[in-house]
Each structure stands twice: as structure tokens, then as C-alpha cells.
Amino acid sequence: MDLMTTKEVAEIWGISARRVALLCSQGRITGAVKKGKTWLIPSDVEKPEDPRKNRKIQNKGL
């Protein structure tokens, strides 16, 4: 299994490295492990869905 850093994942997903680290600390990225100060993320993991998008869709229906 290949592992990537938060910076590498952030570039692929188009979000900030800080946001990827936050998702890791919240347990929303499957298989992410912390080694020292660095999060290591499996290369085959999918980007978790953003619940904020669902809220916008629901508010438009009101």
C-alpha cells in the first residue's frame, strides 16, 4: 500500500493541506495514520463528501 502526505493528497483533491489534516483528525479519511506530526494517507482512498454541500441543497428547497 502506497502512502501519501497531506500535501500530496491536497494537490490531488484540490483542497488545502490543512483541510486534509483536519479530515484525518476527525477520522473522516479511512486508513489515515499519524506518524509523529505527519499524517500518512493511503493512495487509494476517496475524498470524503462535504456535508456543507448537502445543507446548501436543502436550503434551496425551502
Protein described:
The chain has 62 residues and is of the alpha+beta class. The chain contains 3 helices and 3 strands. The chain has helices spanning 6-13, 17-25, 51-60; strands at residues 3-4, 33-35, 38-42. It has a 3-stranded antiparallel β-sheet. Strand 2 (33-35) and strand 3 (38-42) form a beta hairpin. Helix 1 (6-13) crosses helix 2. The longest helix has 10 residues, at 51-60. The mean pLDDT is 90.
Q: Secondary-structure blueprint of this entry?
A:
Elements: E1 3-4, H1 6-13, H2 17-25, E2 33-35, E3 38-42, H3 51-60
Antiparallel strand pairs: 1-3, 2-3
Helix pairs in contact: 1-2
Count of helical stretches: 3
Low-pLDDT runs of 5+ residues are none
**Helix and strand composition category:** alpha+beta
Mean pLDDT: 90
Quick structural gist:
With 62 residues, the chain is of the alpha+beta class.
Give a quick set of tags describing it:
single chain, alpha+beta, 44% helix, elongated
